[in-house]
Amino acid sequence: MTLQNKLSELGLSLPKVAAPAANYVPYVIAGKTLYVSGQIPFLNGEKMHMGRLGENLSVEDGQKAAQACALNILAQVNEAVGGDWSKVVRCVKLGGFVNCTADFYDQPAVINGASNLIAGVMGDSGKHARFAVGAPALPLGVAVEVDAVFELA
Fold this sequence. Notes:
- The chain has helices at 3-9, 59-80, 107-122; strands at 27-30, 33-39, 88-99, 129-135, 144-152.
- By secondary structure, it is of the alpha+beta class.
- It has a single domain (34-152), classed as CATH 3.30.1330.40.
- It has a 5-stranded mixed sheet.
- The longest helix has 22 residues, at 59-80.
- The two termini are 19 Å apart.
């Protein structure tokens, strides 16, 4: 079953790849490693999931934001491998930043939104190392930003 089919079963699809918002590239391939720049929760250019956890967003809102970031990550990977997912060995690591108040401590639960999607559509090859940290602000006021590292064949 293809990645797109697995996403479809979940009622999801790959968004258009997001263009960089500053002086960087969306991904870099170095040897057999694919580094995906931090992705924010805008899908197909539509702003969503704006705000801070612990202030005006719930953990569930944050999980939806993290899932949107993961969809953007998968879109960047798809672009990097020209749609040939046989070139992707595994997801190695996700890094998650959560825009939150100083007394918010559920960053891991929020970033599970991204981790669950990656592992759900990639199976065992989607299980990854990870960090989830809080930040007092994120670019453009988004709730979450997630970056990723993948191993390529």
